[in-house]
C-alpha cells in the first residue's frame, strides 16, 4: 500500500476553563457538534477529506481514576470507522476534567497516560494520535498569561505546567504503543518567531526564540539550549525531571506538526513586550527552522483565516499556505500532510476563548449552518488536484497507514505484530545498554 498525503481538517474540541473554573469553554458545544455530528462527518466526506483531527471531550469522558464514559466516543468513532475516515485522535485540547483540576497537578501525567491507554484499548483500530494539542501554547495561556485553567502568571507556574504537559504526552505515547505498536504521533505545535524591533530588542527576542522550542525539545528528548536549561532549573524543574525527558525519546514514532497563523509572528520591543507582526517570514521559513532542529517528517497541522468582506480572503490564504507547503517540500523536507482547521466556524476565538461572548468566527470550511464556504470548495478542489500527484515521502510513513476498514486484515495484523516485536527489541537493547558493567 502506497503511503498517502494527509489532507486533513479538524473538529474543534478545545475545552479550557475560565473565570476561576466557573465557565467551561467547550467548542464542541459552542459550534453545535454534539447536535450535528453526523452532518459534520457528512461534510468531511463531501469535501473529499480522509483524515480528521478529532477527539472526545476529555472532561465528560474521563470521570475519575479508572472510570470512563465512552458513550459519545463509541457512537462517533464507530461512525468514523464505518465511513473509513481516519481520525488523528486529539485526546487533550487545552482543558482537563474538574476532578484533576489544572496543569499544576503533578498527578496529571500518570492519570492522562491511563486515559490514553484506555482509549487505545477501546479503539484498537485507531493508529494516528495527537495526545496533547499545542503543549507550549497550553502551558503559556494557562500559566504564563493567566488566561485559562489555573490562570497563573509566573515563570514558575509556566515551567510547572510545561513539564507536566510534556511528561503526560510522553507517557501517553508509551501507553498507546503498548496497545498499538505501529501507532504514529503527530505533534500539533504552534510554530512561532519573534522579530527584534530594534537593536535593544535583540536579546529578549533571542530568548523568546529559544523558549519557543522548549515543548518539542523535551518531547523529543533533545538537550535544551544552555540558557533554557538555566531557565528551567531556576523555575522549578529538577535535574531528575529533566533527565526523564532525555531518557524517554520516542521521536522515531513521531511526525512534527507545525501550526501556522497570521498571529504566529511577533515584534519584540526592547522592554520585552510583544505585538503581532503579521506574516513576515511565513510558514516556509519558520518550518525550515523547526525541521533543521528536529529532522522529522512534517505536517502542516493547523491554519485558517477569517472570510472577510470580499469573500475570498480565506481562499487566498489557503493558496498561500499551500504554496508554502510545496516550497518546503521542494526544499527536501518530507512534508506528509496539510490541514485547514477547522471544519466549521469557531466561537469566541477572537478573544482566544478568554471571554464567553458567543461571537462566531468565520474561519471554517463550513459555517455553523453547515453550509460550505468558498474556502471549503477551494480546499475540495485542491485535494482533487493534488492527492494523486503528491504521495508522501517520509521515513515515518514507509510502513503504510492502515485504513479503518482494513484494520482486521491479516496483513494489518502482521504489521502490528512486526512493529510490536521491533519495539520490544529496541526496548531490550536500551535496557541492556544501560546496565552497569559486572
TrEMBL record:
<dbReference type="InterPro" id="IPR017853">
    <property type="entry name" value="GH"/>
</dbReference>
<dbReference type="InterPro" id="IPR001360">
    <property type="entry name" value="Glyco_hydro_1"/>
</dbReference>
<feature type="region of interest" description="Disordered">
    <location>
        <begin position="408"/>
        <end position="438"/>
    </location>
</feature>
<feature type="compositionally biased region" description="Polar residues">
    <location>
        <begin position="425"/>
        <end position="438"/>
    </location>
</feature>
<protein>
    <submittedName>
        <fullName>Family 1 glycosylhydrolase</fullName>
    </submittedName>
</protein>
<dbReference type="Pfam" id="PF00232">
    <property type="entry name" value="Glyco_hydro_1"/>
</dbReference>
<dbReference type="InterPro" id="IPR051923">
    <property type="entry name" value="Glycosyl_Hydrolase_39"/>
</dbReference>
